[in-house]
Automatic annotation (TrEMBL):
Coiled-coil annotated residue ranges, if any: none
Protein name per its UniProtKB record: Glutamate carboxypeptidase
Pfam families: PA, Peptidase_M28
GO molecular function: carboxypeptidase activity
Organism: Daphnia magna
Peptidase M28 domain span: 352-455
Keyword entries, A-Z: Membrane, Transmembrane, Transmembrane helix
InterPro entries: PA_dom_sf (IPR046450), PA_domain (IPR003137), Peptidase_M28 (IPR007484), Peptidase_M28B (IPR039373)
Entry similarity comment: Belongs to the peptidase M28 family. M28B subfamily.
Transmembrane annotation, as ranges: 21-42
Domain PA, residue spans: 168-255
Length: 456
């Protein structure tokens, strides 16, 4: 949720006195590609006697103030895929494309399987003592940090999309990054995760693969965490809002489905109304165990309660304020870890927004500029910095078209994808629907997911 991307970038990018600095690298890259690939090589004017310096026109007309305004709207509310805010932003993008002067713009719906936490029910990890009492429990929702505009009651509490629901209780095994070789190492030491909860460090491999392997080796649940060595500086307390480093309460959202791209119910086929859908029950792409990501401060509590009888290898360590022990036993006899997760998978509609600026010579050849639009929270850096920049590129192209009677040589397609965070769903469904045409006519695709750089 409020990671270093979604928290610190919200604060810093909206700071008026510095806003022009944040776009330098991102806009320079976009201008380089769009002017070199989209304009310089393919741009023409209907007036054969007049050769436009389109690259310079783009550079002159790009407005960081306009990008900042776009970003402020895009980050004004959480916009998880499949929600009312998702549709509002899709329609807002369509209106911006039409206002810019593109030839066409429309929203494209897809009926897909998405996943959400149950309202008012906190997903949590607890330590249960030998009398069955709760000794410690995770917060389930991260506290507001920074300014009021960086918090909303619409932010969903901690969850990992497509996790199984359920309550499991048992010992815990620290499995490092949760790779196959990590489990094989544990087995070589006589430690089996079967029947226990796997405590898994994020990184190196996709989180969905971590869950799949935990399930394969017999874990009854999976608790994910980010190690402090990868999320903070040397100073433990130098975190957001005092810096861009992730605070200890930050938990990483993300889906844990096993199909790497597209709607889980319509694999390899677009999720349109007439599509055949496979049954969600016993779906091979959905985990069978509950999964929850927690903050590293919360993970430290769990690590401190693991028995020291099986210390982890040095290379499995990091910078947590806790010893790295493997388990499975806890430090106190009779104590257990309880994982309680409530998730609802639902078919909902998500929307792509597609804008088209037709070419003047090879109008049946497409150059695509795209980015996803949905985010787990405000999405200031990923993806809204790229979306704000893409809208500005469309505005400038439309303005040059009107003022200079100009068109690019080839057709430019602006793509704002929905439900990316659930497994690249929007882009997969659209390309599956138009695969034959794109295979024959698409020339290049430039993705502008994150269009800023730097430490400010």
């Amino acid at each position: 949720m409020w990671s270093n991307q979604d928290l610190s970038e919200t604060k810093t990018m909206l700071e008026p006195s510095k806003k022009s600095d944040y776009w330098i690298v991102g806009i320079a890259l976009i201008i380089f590609f769009t002017s070199g690939i989209l304009i310089g090589r393919y741009g023409t004017s209907h007036d054969s006697q007049h050769v436009l310096d389109v690259k310079q026109l783009v550079i002159d007309q790009i407005s960081t103030d306009q990008i900042s305004s776009n970003l402020r709207y895009l980050t004004s509310t959480p916009h998880v895929a499949g929600t009312a805010q998702d549709l509002l932003q899709a329609e807002w993008m369509r209106d911006r494309f039409l206002e810019a002067g593109l030839d066409e713009a429309k929203t494209v719906p897809y009926d897909v399987l998405l996943s959400y936490p149950l309202p008012g029910v906190m997903n949590k990890v607890s330590l249960i003592d030998d009398h069955g009492r709760i000794n410690y429990t995770t917060a389930g929702r991260q506290p507001p940090l920074g300014s009021p505009e960086e918090y909303s009651e619409d932010i969903m509490h901690n969850f990992n999309a497509f996790s199984a629901s359920g309550v499991v209780e048992g010992n815990v095994v620290y499995v490092h990054y949760g790779r196959k070789k990590d489990y094989e190492f544990l087995l070589s030491r006589g430690i089996n995760v079967s029947g226990h909860i796997a405590l898994i460090r994020l990184g190196v491999i996709f989180r969905g693969s971590k869950v799949e392997l935990a399930e394969r080796y017999g874990a009854i649940g999976a608790v994910l965490f980010s190690d402090r060595i990868e999320k903070t500086s040397q100073d433990r307390n130098f975190t957001y809002p005092d810096s861009w480093w992730m605070p200890g309460t930050g938990a990483e959202y993300g889906h844990v489905g096993r199909l790497r791209g597209g709607d889980l119910l319509t694999p390899y086929y677009p999720a349109i109304e007439s599509a055949f859908r496979i049954n969600e029950d016993n779906h091979p792409g959905l985990p069978k165990i509950p999964v929850l990501a927690i903050g590293y401060e919360e993970a430290e509590v769990i690590l401190r309660h693991i028995s020291p009888e099986n210390p982890a290898p040095t290379k499995w360590g990091g910078k947590m304020d806790a010893p790295y022990n493997i388990g499975p036993n806890l430090r106190y006899p009779g104590w257990k870890v309880r994982l309680d997760v409530s998730i609802a998978n639902e078919r909902r509609t998500t929307f792509n927004t597609i804008g088209i600026l037709k070419g003047s010579v090879e109008d049946d050849r497409y150059v695509l500029l795209g980015n996803h639009r949905d985010a787990w929270t405000f999405g200031a850096l990923d993806p809204s910095s790229g979306t704000a920049s893409m809208i500005e590129i469309a505005r400038v192209f439309g303005n040059i078209k009107r003022e200079q009677n100009w068109r690019p040589r080839r057709t430019i397609v602006f793509c704002s994808w929905g439900a990316h965070e659930y497994g690249l769903v929007g882009s997969y469904e659209w390309t599956q629907q138009h695969a034959k045409v794109l295979n024959q006519r698409a020339v290049a695709y430039l993705n502008v997911d994150t269009a800023v750089s730097g430490k400010k």
